[in-house]
């Protein structure tokens, strides 16, 4: 009977610590980008940005909040290892 191979190779039941840290960063980055999109849009519209300036401001806010939240989530996942 063939042995089922999981996503982390044969014989490994759990992901490595580095895989967990990467996954924590990706999850945190996604959540931070969503939050940055909401807060960035409202703050940029509130100060009167329009058009290309609005897109640049929202994109910058999304990247900043995504990177920040992703970093803290990856640190938290690293501590759990």
TrEMBL record:
Subcellular localization: Membrane
Record-annotated membrane-spanning stretches: 25-45
GO cellular component, one term: TIM23 mitochondrial import inner membrane translocase complex
Record flagged with keyword Transmembrane helix: yes
Main location as per UniProt: membrane
Record-linked InterPro entries: Romo1/Mgr2
Keywords: Membrane, Transmembrane, Transmembrane helix
One of the GO BP terms on file: protein import into mitochondrial matrix
Protein purpose: Induces production of reactive oxygen species (ROS) which are necessary for cell proliferation. May play a role in inducing oxidative DNA damage and replicative senescence. May play a role in the coordination of mitochondrial morphology and cell proliferation.
Family statement drawn from the similarity comment of this UniProt entry: Belongs to the MGR2 family.
PANTHER family: REACTIVE OXYGEN SPECIES MODULATOR 1
The protein's name in its UniProt record: Reactive oxygen species modulator 1
Organism the protein comes from: Osmerus mordax (Rainbow smelt)
Lineage of the organism: Eukaryota, Metazoa, Chordata, Craniata, Vertebrata
Gene coding for it: CT052
């Amino acid at each position: 009977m063939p042995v089922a191979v999981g996503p982390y190779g044969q014989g490994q039941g759990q992901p490595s610590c580095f895989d967990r840290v990467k996954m924590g960063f990706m999850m945190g980055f996604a959540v931070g980008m969503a939050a940055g999109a909401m807060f960035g849009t409202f703050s940029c519209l509130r100060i009167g940005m329009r058009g290309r300036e609005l897109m640049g401001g929202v994109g910058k806010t999304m990247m900043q909040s995504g990177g920040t939240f992703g970093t803290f989530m990856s640190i938290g996942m690293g501590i759990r290892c």
